[in-house]
Amino acid sequence: MNIENLIRKNIKQMKSYSSARDEFEDFEKEMIFLDANENPFENGVNRYPDPQQKSVKSILSKINNITEDQILLGNGSDEVLDLLFRAFCEPRQDNVITLPPTYGMYDVLANLNAIENREVILTKDFQPDLVQILEAVDQKTKIIFLCSPNNPTGNSFSDESIVTLLQKFKGLIVIDEAYIDFSDKESWLQELNDYPNLIITQTLSKAYGMAGIRLGILYASKEITSILNKIKPPYNVNVLTQLKAIERLKKNDSVKKEISVLKGNKELLFKQLLEVNFVVKIYESDANFILVKVDDASKRYKQLLEQGIVVRNRSNQTLCENCLRITIGTADENNKLLNTLKSLQNA
Ligand SMILES: *Cc1c(COP(=O)(O)O)cnc(C)c1O
Which part of the chain is the Aminotransferase class I/classII large domain (predicted)? Predict the structure, then answer.
């Protein structure tokens, strides 16, 4: 496994932009900063942010027992995923593999970067189809995206299938763990040191309740993070985002409490949905949403909208015919959803 061989040639050769704050980065000392053409009058955001987000990384490294140089932060997961394409996938030559039904951004980013996306549909029980995946791999396959727990199905992929892919595939394996905090399964973070081709992405958008600040996290070997660091926009995570993230990460207890409430709400909603007569199937979920098969998804979607409830119609995705994806809300919101669904039983 040689990461060096996977990097695009132009990326390997390029020099990164050296920002003022890269060249002098000691924030601790009382210095007079006349190097970045900032406005000197203090208002809280008049200075450029720390390009390496050291304070945020320091907390994340402690929470996850990982070194700071194994972390890369971005403007949402979408940015760190895009950086992966840019660093490793040669436009019009390389390809990636994704496993539909899954998160739509992988395909969007592949298209944006002119990279072929080889879609290998999940098995009927929403697991990776190992035979088909390994058959789809060729010399130009750079990345396989595994979303676990998967969006929109909600299930996690089996450990065996993930290990098999990590061992057999000679490119990069990205495990998107956007929903890992809702799962009883362990993150793959502690396996980072065992697999040089493993990349894990997480986000503050879901369990941490901070979709509005846009903070995506990538964990990988420092060999990989240093390449991504070289090409990322210098000030990609703004001052306000860093401050808010630090505040929230320090209150880990309240995050845990919210997660536990949402997991309880999910168990309850799961049971209650079984009582709705047009619900055909409810899929087990390790995430903060449930995929529900109904008699007629478009019809039920519209009926819910008319009653002021917005869910996601996933019907047009492979294997998701007549499926709605329902995010777990507060107890009150879930009750309203359930009462509305029951009132529609004869409609
Ligand atoms: C919501 C979600 C994300 C989060 O994206 P952000 O850009 O960090 O908000 C990432 N991956 C999956 C699968 C998601 O569902």
Answer: 43-340
